[in-house]
Design brief:
With 416 residues, this protein is an alpha/beta fold. The chain has two domains: 268 residues, Spore Coat Polysaccharide Biosynthesis Protein SpsA, Chain A, CATH 3.90.550.10; 123 residues, no CATH class. The chain has 16 helices and ten strands. The strands form two sheets. The chain has an eight-stranded mixed beta sheet with strand order 3-2-1-4-7-5-8-10, with helices on both faces. Helix 2 packs across helix 5 and helix 9 packs across helix 14. The longest helix has 22 residues.
């Protein structure tokens, strides 16, 4: 079923009553009754502290929670001069549909700036609102991407894939392209709303990387803002990041096809202006199950060995085979091998005319192996030292971009 609006009638009526606003803060949520109150409290305090003279609306975009998320949000007492809307969005279940309802609200209220923050945040402070909004309201930027201090084993999809690919493809050092907490100018919210993606997988997942990539490829003014430590409902990569990996990779590869002319023309990269918090705070550690990661890799390699031999070049396959024989604590996958895996997978995805989801499933064990390798490489490092390893890896992705263009062309002629 196609939806021409992400808003229900009661939400639409509420927007009509408010008429217009300067700032909208969107909070997409689903079963977050334990954290939603803290997030709303920090948002309302931040708006009161820094933007008391602006008309502010907090917009809760719920995905049909079966716990008390909406009740908690409704009962929270706002500052008297702030408005709050608690809504259940329409459209496919997913964060993208929640964002669509926020974009639509931003357009109808004619806001100057819009912020979205995750509903499972434990470390959000009232100052996050200022750090995200200030570049838009005072410096003329149109898109603000977050920078966080994260524990070295948090954000493994960003550290090993998304940051590297975004930087190598589009030439900008955007450290957290799928960070979850963004700000954008009113006109950018309107641009996003007009794109014909709301019946696609972007509406279910992949919204963060879609927004960042579109901001880059359409030359909107982009900066980053340091928000400090990010503590949320952290996930052990061995336990629960497989589905997220598949979703993000699929969206990344589709965007590569859509923006092929742009990324092929980019030969170097540059840093992006950074605002926000100045100090560094060591984040809390999270536990990871190294043994399970390595086991998943070895099981996947045994299961898909024949397909890996078909998909990857001989050099890459032989290295993956060597990795499968390594002990848990000695497991290291060379960065160059990982770069080749991702580039050859992207090129194969481009040439496959049938089940692309199956292809992404095939490489999930290889990603888990790369995470295990990163854990072993950085075991004795602080999070800031591990960050240097991430930066070096990103440079290897850039250095081998010609290889991506080569295999993209070669596999494109095969049409598997």
């Amino acid at each position: 079923m196609r939806y021409d609006t992400g808003l229900r009638a009661y939400t639409s009526k509420r927007i009509e009553e408010i008429e217009n606003a300067d700032i909208l803060v969107g909070i997409p949520c689903y079963n977050n009754e334990k954290t939603i109150e803290h997030v709303i409290r920090m948002v309302t305090h931040g708006l009161a502290k820094h933007y008391k003279d602006q008309r502010c609306v907090i917009f809760i975009a719920d995905g049909g929670s079966t716990d008390d998320t909406r009740e908690v949000a409704k009962e929270f007492q706002m500052k008297p001069w702030q408005e709050k809307i608690v809504s259940i969005y329409r459209g496919p279940a997913g964060k993208g549909s929640a964002f669509r309802s926020a974009f639509e609200t931003a357009k109808r209220l004619k806001v100057k700036a819009c912020v979205v923050v995750d509903s499972d945040l434990r470390s959000i402070t009232s100052d996050w609102i200022k750090y995200l909004l200030e570049p838009i309201l005072e410096k003329g930027y149109q898109y603000v991407s977050p920078v966080y201090t994260r524990y070295k084993y948090d954000g493994t999809i960003t550290n090993n894939i998304v940051y590297n690919l975004t930087r190598a493809l589009y030439g900008l050092h955007i450290r957290q392209p799928i960070g979850g907490d963004f700000a954008f100018a009113g006109e950018l919210a309107e641009y996003y709303l007009e794109q014909d993606v709301w019946d696609t997988d972007v509406a279910r997942y992949g919204i963060d990387i879609w927004m960042t990539t579109n901001a880059i490829t359409n030359n909107f003014r982009i900066c980053q803002s340091n928000l400090g430590v990010k503590i949320h409902d952290a996930k052990d990569p061995a336990e629960s990041l497989g589905p997220m990996f598949r979703q993000v990779i699929h969206t990344l590869f589709v965007l590569m096809e859509q923006n092929e002319a742009e990324w092929k023309a980019i030969k170097s990269s540059r840093t992006v202006p950074l605002f926000g918090l100045q100090e560094f705070i060591e984040p809390e550690p999270i536990q990871v199950d190294l043994g399970r990661l390595v086991t998943e890799y070895k099981t996947g390699f045994r299961q898909f060995k024949g397909l890996y031999r078909d998909i990857f070049c001989a050099e890459c396959f032989e290295e993956l085979k060597r990795c499968a024989a390594k002990a848990k604590t000695k497991f290291v996958m060379p960065v160059k091998t990982w770069v080749m895996v991702l580039y050859e997978t992207a090129a194969t995805f481009h040439s496959w005319t049938y089940n692309r989801t199956q292809l992404v499933n095939l490489v999930t064990p290889l990603y888990l192996g790369r995470v295990a390798s990163f854990i072993n490489e950085t075991r004795k490092m602080s999070s800031s030292q591990a960050e240097e390893v991430v930066e070096k890896q990103a440079q290897v992705f850039e250095d081998h971009k010609d290889y991506l263009i080569q295999v993209w062309g070669e596999k494109g002629t095969e049409k598997l």
